[in-house]
Amino acid sequence: MTREQAGFPRLRLRRLRRGEAVRRLVRETTVTADDLVYPLFATWGSGLREEIPAMPGQYHWSVDRVPEVAAEVAGAGIKAVLLFGLPARKDPHASEAYDDEGVVQAAIRAVKEARPDLLVLTDVCLCQYTDHGHCGVVTPDGRIDNDRSLELLARAAVSHARAGADGVAPSDMMDGRVAAIRAALDGEGFEDRLILSYAAKFASAFYGPFREAAHSAPRFGDRRSYQMDPANAREALREVALDVAEGADMVMVKPALPYLDVIRRVRDTFPHPVAAYNVSGEYAMIKAAAARGWIDEDRVVAESLTAIKRAGADLVVTYFALDAARRLASGGFY
Ligand code: PBG
After folding, report:
1. How many whole angstroms from its chain centre is CA 156?
2. How many CB atoms are closer than 10 A to CB 329?
3. 294 Cβ partners below 8 Å, 6+ apart?
4. Cβ proximity of 299 and 320 under 8 Å
5. Which of 126, 133, 179, 209 has the highest count of CB atoms within 10 angstroms of its CB?
C-alpha cells in the first residue's frame, strides 16, 4: 500500500484549505489581466456608446469614442483588444471589410493613436460586411465559395495590418485561409504581424447575442457547412493541425465553457499558445441569471474564467475582461 492509500486519518486534504493564505499558496490556476482579451465593437457615427440589448454592459462605440474605451481597457491592465466593425454598407463582396477607410481600419488607428501600447487584434471575416450575412462569398446557386472567399479575407487582413493591427484573427472557417492570409501579409511586408486563428470554431447557438450585436445573422441557411459540428473533438485537432501548418501563431477554441474538453485536448496535443473565446451567449446567460438574482455574477465569472484556464487556455477572449481586470486589480476577484 502506498502512503497515499494509507490515507485518513493521517492524511487530511482539508489542511490545504484552512484559510485564504494556504489556499492561495497551493492554487494551481490563476487568472491575471495579462490573460484577458477584450472584444470591442466599433461603429460609424459620432458620440455613440450604445448598449447592446442582449449583452448588457457591452456597447457599440463610434470611432471617435474608441480612444475612451481603449484608455479604460489599458488602464485596467488589459494588454489586448479584439476589434469588430459595424460597417456603413453591406454588399455581396463585403467591400468595406477590405476598405482602408473602413470602420475597423478607422478603429484600429483610433486605438493605436490613443494607446500605442495596447495590442490590437482584429476579427477577419466577411459576415458583418456581406448583405447575405455569410462568412464567405455566395455562388448564384447559394453555396459558400471557399476559394473565392480566401482572396477577400486576405485583402481584409492586409488592410487591417496597414491600419496598424498587431494581429489578425480569421473567424470565417474557410479551408486554407490561414495560408492565404500569411502569404498576403508576408507579401506586403507584414511578416511581423501575428495570426490568431479561430481554429476550432463550432457552429454554436451561443453566438446568438453577437449576431444581434454585429447585425451579422445569415439571411438564409446557417453556418453548418463551414463551422464545426459541436459533436466533433477529434476533427477539432485536425483543424488546429492544419492551421498551425499553414502558419497560425496562436489557435483558438470557440465557444469556451461548453468545449472545455476540446481546449484540454488542443493544449495536450500542440505546444502553441491556446486561446478560448468565452462567447456572447455565455456572457448573456450569466448576465441574465445575475439580473434575476439567481446567481452571484462576480463569483460565477471568476469560476468560469478559472475553469477555462484550468482546461488549458493561455488566454481568454471575454466580454467580462474589463470587470474581471478591475476586480483583479482591487484584490476582489477570488
Ligand atoms: C464572425 C464572428 C462571430 C463571432 C465572432 N466572430 C459570429 C459567428 O460566427 O456567427 C461570435 C462571437 C460571440 O458570440 O461572442 N464570424
Report:
1. 18
2. 13
3. none
4. no
5. 126
Cβ–Cβ < 8 Å for 302, 227: no
* Residue ranges around ligand 1 (CB below 6 Å): 123, 125, 127, 135, 171, 207, 210-211, 223, 279-280
CA of 172 to the centre of ligand 1 (A): 9
* Pairing label, strands 144-145, 137-138: antiparallel
- Which residue is it, cell 473567424? 171
Instruction: Give the domains, in start order, of the chain with CATH numbers.
Output: 30-329 (3.20.20.70)
How do residues 43-83 score in pLDDT, each as one tens digit? 999 999 999 999 999 999 999 999 999 999 999 999 999 99
- pTM score, two decimals? 0.96
**DSSP state string for 10-36:** T--GGGGGSSHHHHHHT------GGGE
Query: Per 3-state DSSP, what percentage of the chain is helix, strand, and coil (rounded to 5)?
Result: 45, 20, 35
Average pLDDT over residues 93-113: 98
Q: What are 31's three cell numbers?
A: 487568472
User: 279 CA distance to ligand 1 centroid (A)?
Assistant: 8
